[in-house]
Write a structure and sequence with these properties.
The chain is an alpha/beta fold. The protein folds into three domains: 119 residues, 3-Layer(aba) Sandwich (Rossmann fold); 229 residues, Alpha-Beta Horseshoe (pyruvate-formate lyase- activating enzyme); 63 residues, Beta Barrel (OB fold (Dihydrolipoamide Acetyltransferase, E2P)), CATH 2.40.50. The protein is 34% helix and 22% strand. The chain is built from twelve helices and 18 strands. The strands form four sheets. It has a six-stranded parallel beta sheet. Strands 2-1-3-4-5 form a five-stranded parallel beta sheet, sandwiched between helices. It has a five-stranded mixed barrel with strand order 14-15-16-18-17. The longest helix is centred in the last third of the chain and has 24 residues. The protein is globular, with a radius of gyration of 22 Å.
Amino acid sequence: MIKVKVHTVSLGCPKNRVDTERLLGALGVDLVPEDDPAAADLVLVNTCGFIRPAIEESLSTILGLSDRLAGLEARPVLAVAGCLVSRFGTELQAGLPEVDLWLSTRELDRWPLLAAKALGKRAFRAPRSRALSTGPASAYLKVSEGCNNRCRFCTIPSIRGPHTSVKLQSLAVEARDLLSQGVSELVLVGQDLTAWGRDLGVKDGLPRLLERLLPLPGLRWLRLMYLYPAGLTAPVLDFLASAGPPLLPYFDVPLQHAHPAILKSMGRPFATDPRKVVDRIRERFPEAALRTSLIVGYPGETEKRFQTLYDFVARTRFTHLGVFPFHPEEGTPAAKLPGRVPQRVKDQRRAAIMELQAGIAAERMEGCVGRKIEVLLEGPHPEWPGLFKGRAWFQAPEVDGSTFVSAPQGKTLKPGQMVKVRVESAGTYDLSALV
């Protein structure tokens, strides 16, 4: 079977990566080296358009690749896909005539057809639904598209549309296919996992979905990302607590802030006290790994309101934490709010919380020293022979720290393998261990 040679860059969130992998799988591809896009038939940039820094990164990537391809006698098809196209399609097409193909998230199902048409006779259909780019250890499973929540700072509903669940049978088939490729961990992603099934009329959607996926042969870890706090009700958490392995006690809950006035202005749940959802989780999972994302510098965030957020982080002691300065995105209600915070202050507040979190994270990592833990190996370290990069159960792919594993002489390690290790030392976010 002849395959299309593709150079691809997938920016933004894991949901974008899944879209890229589905397109590549449908076309049937050979990926060309990252440093040689000119050798490809198709150069694909899957963009993020969520906030200004992501937009700037996407545009820089497109322009950089366009410059590298300019003047080639046999120029690859340059395709730009994803959220940036959905948000600024008309403006982009007028400003970037060198792009041959535009792929909006509003027509995901047509991406393979449109790409094949642009490639002509060079496109051939492949048997797999996904061409994995994450290595043999883990894969993302996108369970839904879009979002029905109306957070006032967020562009996702306007870019990706309303919440639409992938049907259960389709997810089960895709999950089996991923596991058949040797993947040990499935990471469920969606804009709001707790909303899965609502549009399909499925009662208790997330529990029903997990009941179908957890028994699948070959599944060692199942990780949940993007759990909207209002959806983590007592019945849902009771189900998760009773499920047991391979479900990991890892909770990615984007709280965004802690002060009630800011949360109310954001249009967020738990506006009176975000500790409610944290307490609900820890009552059932005392050793849970908690990840959250926060926004600093939202309009109306006074020093006192920021202090509330800072104190909340200090008390809660999240396992992992991301902090983002507020960006007034065009088309969102928050962009028109008074009480703007200067960029300098936003940067200072972000740095203050990240410094606080670094101390919390370092203490947590130090507590692992001397313990034996299971690690999923992702691949060899690119610079240190004999050293492997992996993750413990409380480390999600791409967004958390890593565990670096050394093996005694004569011991063979391979990507995708689960190994029992002893933690020898700890950094702020990473661990070092011996088999």
